[in-house]
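for the writeup, i need someone to sanity check this before i put it in the appendix. the sequnce is what the collaborator sent (i think, or maybe the updated version? ugh). structure was predicted straight from it, no edits. if anything looks off just tell me and ill rerun, i have time this weekend
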Amino acid sequence: MTETLLGISEVLMYGEKVADMTYTDKADQPTRRFVRVYGFSYEGGYYHLDSPVIMLLAGEPSPIDNSTPADVKSALSGTMQVWTADKGDHSARLDETTGAIEDILLEAELGDHAHGGRVSGGRVSGGRVSGGRVSGGRVSGGRVSGGKAD
């Protein structure tokens, strides 16, 4: 790929089209599709996502080619494609969570409410915690990824 002056705001997203989800836009917008994104490149660095996310991306993808860094190629399957966007473009992100309804809905939203404990309004995303309140809560099925304790 050729570097441009405004390339500093470019984001390359590596993923695969989600075949069983479609998007219909009422306005004449560029073609958008749901893509399962596994990693992205920004400002010369590659960032692998711990858990893939589904994003609504515009435009046609390009195949991963010789200009793709070797560590990116080795981290991804042969069916991956790359979508190019500007960091200011608008999109939608859907985090995939699968499992039993009890775990992904009831426990996640109600917690141990019947026994007086509950975590509400909290969200941890990208190393940020916002809007969280814990009272009489418990942690069940928690996971720490990439953490370090000193």
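Residues 114-119, 134-140 have pLDDT under 50 and may be disordered. The helical segments are 70-75, 101-110.
thx in advance!!
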